[in-house]
Amino acid sequence: MPGKILFSLLLSTLLATAPVAADTRAFVGATIIDGTAIDEGGSTMTEDAVVLVRDGRIVAVGSRSEVEIPGDAERIDLTGRYLIPGLINAHAHVGDVRGLESGHYSEDNVLRQLGLYARYGITTAVSLGGDEDEAFVIRDAQERSDLDHARIFVAGPVLNPGSPEAARIAVDRVADMNPDYIKIRVDDFLGRGQKMAPEVYEAIAVRSMEHDIPLAVHIFYLEDARALLELNADLIAHSIRDQHVDQALIDQMLARDVCFNPTLTRELSTFVYAEEPDFFSDPFFRREVDDAVIETLLEPDRQRAMQESPMAEGFRAALPIARANLKLLSDAGVGVAMGTDSGVAGRFQGYFEHLEMEMMAEAGLTPAEILYSATGGAARCMGLEDLGTLEAGHWADMVILRENPLDDIRNTRSIEQVRIAGNRVPDAD
């Protein structure tokens, strides 16, 4: 067995079996928005509430009159605050980029980025591709009550085989890693690349089903989405961006309960640095970004190259279509899992998830719809059974806000503290 894999297995075993102390905490007095449903009327809200947490999991949640607090519990007073489930980014990439450079994959970088996500209230990152051994080890060790960084779920490498036989072999190899998803791209990048052949992605789809591993697909075109849904793809990992969706596609997605990631910020990132973005002056953004990265993105030659890029112009034109399709699919009842494709250079982890939710509001979704897409809805879409909602038995991954996100989704930025398994997320080093 290669030394790197052996080390990963030993580390996973040690982390998973390390003893942790029993711990009971009572979070008291907040207004809870529990993430279980989309409801403007507030039936999922509980005022002056208690969330009782033991060993990292919720054991009771309800009004103060309904929940008995044990005498030995640590009480955390949240009077006047809003308590929501930890946010889920259902399309991330973790561990490879440092600053604006790729090629920095390591255990330290994965953990650094999971800490960054957590400080922004993103308590779960679904990493859809590029995941190496280190991420699998961290994933396998996160079912623990002393966790204080974001959780990660993984797809392993993005598959790009050249033949059906190579496709079956590739899926088998990834399946041996025990991923949460299989990820492929079916895209010609605005005519500048070679799109995966139908017989190849059909072989991947069939083999993924044989292994019972959900298949997440990167697409751009409506017809590719239609073809992959016919092959039982489980997640459309980007918005359709070439034309407006039709009822036939909506019916396909509803029939199989297939969700999609909007990733509006993915499109934005391809052209927004042609000039200085408004968010460069946002303190919520600046608190976690290296000034040297901003200086690089503001270099005139870099800006000029983006201004003159046909790819940037093509993706700029695609964004309004993506925005319109988000509204069409959401209104039709198709599942939406908030996702950003952050973790690629120029797609800032943590901040871009909040920017994504703001852009979803600009597309016409209500704050309640958006919050659900980033909590209980994302968990349902991605098969995360004990995350995304504040319910007994679930992990106590929570964000404490000063302002009500159902009034304005930008209020998710009013973060006072973040808890993962009930533990307060530490500040940046």
Q: From the alpha carbons, calculate the radius of gyration and give it in angstroms.
A: 21 Å
CATH fold-level topology = TIM Barrel
**Count of DSSP E strands?**
15
Strand content: 15-25%
Query: In the CATH classification, which architecture applies?
Result: Alpha-Beta Barrel
Total count of domains: 1
Q: CATH H level: which superfamily? A: Metal-dependent hydrolases
Give the averaged pLDDT, no decimals.
Answer: 94
Number of helices: 15
Can you tell me about this structure?
The chain is an alpha/beta fold and 429 residues long. It has one domain: TIM Barrel (Alpha-Beta Barrel), CATH 3.20.20. The chain is built from 15 helices and 15 strands. It has helices at residues 3-17, 107-119, 133-140, 164-175, 198-211, 222-230, 247-256, 264-269, 283-286, 291-297, 300-307, 310-331, 351-362, 367-373, 376-382; strands at residues 24-33, 45-54, 57-63, 74-77, 82-85, 87-92, 122-127, 151-154, 182-186, 215-219, 235-236, 259-260, 398-401, 415-420, 423-424. Strands 1, 2, 3, 4, 5, 13, 14 and 15 form an 8-stranded mixed β-sheet that branches. A 4-stranded parallel β-sheet has the order 9-10-11-12. Strand 7, helix 3 and strand 8 (151-154) form a beta-alpha-beta unit. Helix 1 (3-17) packs parallel to helix 3 (133-140) and helix 4 (164-175) packs parallel to helix 5 (198-211). Mean pLDDT is 94; it is low at 1-21.
